[in-house]
Every structure is written in structure tokens, then in C-alpha cells.
Amino acid sequence: QRQMCIRDRHIGFSDHRQSGFGAGGSDGAPISLWEAVNTAEHHSIKGALDEGGVTLLGMTYYPFSDTEYNLQGYKNWIDYALRNNSDFDVFVGMPWPTNPGDLDIESFKKAYEQGHNEVHSFIDALRREYPTVDIFCVPYGESAVELKRLFENDRFPELETLIGPSHESVFSDELGHPGWPMTEMGTLIWLKAIYGVDLQEIDYRSPFSLNIVGLSERILNSHDHNYDAP
Question: How far does the chain reach from its first CA to its final CA, in angstroms?
Fold first, then answer.
């Protein structure tokens, strides 16, 4: 059975707890979750924040055309978190564009970069409003850009199709959910971007011929360090 090769015990996190909440598509955007006051997700997020002790609050990005409306979602959740949590960081995760089969690699990359630039603009605005909160970006979506490029250039032998069975494809469906290789790579990016893990030092044996550890590090090394974790 193929499964994630990275475990807490491999990287030294013995007392790590996390909670995740979300919804599909635009419903998972911060402003949408804030406005969905009658949903279980809305109340579960508030409940987790009400307990206190949160050290990291992460939110995703969705490309709404109304920038101020979009930004307000992040502000609402940060304001709410500050009620019972006085010392926490915030990150905005940058995903990849949807429907990857409809775009060539250059169009796919351009769509990703447009969203990424907007995330950085959001972070600038949030840092001005919350100067005591450390706010940064996790550019894990670039893994999709790189793997799509590698696939189209026949440079990732284990990838048989762009969209298909998870274990041999970049994406597992037309919408753009990740295949197994991207899940592995995305995990490596999150580990380094959020926790500062040295990917060369962890007990990780890649199941692929491609050096996804090195590729993950290159993505983060090329990221604008003004938007990295402190």
C-alpha cells in the first residue's frame, strides 16, 4: 500500500496537535467560512479558537474578484482568534490553479503567479493592521507547477498521466486534486516552510527517482524571503 512516508517521529515532533476545517471550492475561502454561520465548520473553527493555546492559524487563498471582500475574511478570523489567543502566527497557504488539464504550462504558471502576488499583497495589508502578529506565506502550490512542467517534458518517469490514478499522475481528477507524488512533495514544502525543518536531515526515503527533496528546497529557496516564516 502506498502511503505518506513522513511521520512525526521522523522529524522530532513528539507533541504536535493540529485541527483542520474546510469546504470545497470557494466555500473554503476564509470569508466564505466566516459568513457560513449556520455550518458545522464555522462553529468548529470558532470552538477551536475559543479554547485558546493556538500558536499557528493557517488559511487558504481563493481568487475572488473583489479583493477587499476577500481580504476581509482573513481579518475577521484574526480578530476572532485574538479574543482568546495572544501569541500566535498566521500563514496564508497558496494553492495551485484548478482545472490543470485546460491550461498549458505557461498559462498554468501565470495563473499561479497572479494568485501568489495577491497573497503577498494581502500579507502586506495584514502586517500593517496586525503589527504584533507574524504573518507569512506557504507557497506549496508551486509543487503543482513544477510537477506539471516535469511531466510535460518527460522528466518524471513515475508519472504516467497528467490526470488519472493517484499513484501515477500529477493530478487525481479534472478539478486538480493532487496525485501521490504531489502529496509527498507538498508535505515536504509545508514542513520546511512552517516549521523550518532541514529536509536533508530528516529520515525520509523518497519513493521516486526524482529528487523531490531537492526540488522542494529549490521552490522555497526561490520564494521571496520577505514572506517566509520568521
Answer: 38
What's the distance, CA 50 to chain centroid? 24
Q: Judge whether 82 and 46 are in contact, CB under 8 Å.
A: no
Q: For residue 169, what are the β-bridge partners?
A: 161
Contact 88, 57 (CB under 8 A): yes
pTM, rounded to two decimals = 0.91
Residues in the chain: 230
User: How far is residue 89 from each of residues 17, 54, 57, 165, 173, measured CA to CA in Å?
Assistant: 15, 9, 6, 37, 33
What is d(CA 109, CA 69) in angstroms, rounded to the nearest whole number?
Answer: 25
Q: What is the per-residue pLDDT across 53-112, written as a single tens digit (0 to 9) for each?
A: 999 999 999 999 999 999 999 999 999 999 999 899 999 999 999 999 999 999 999 999
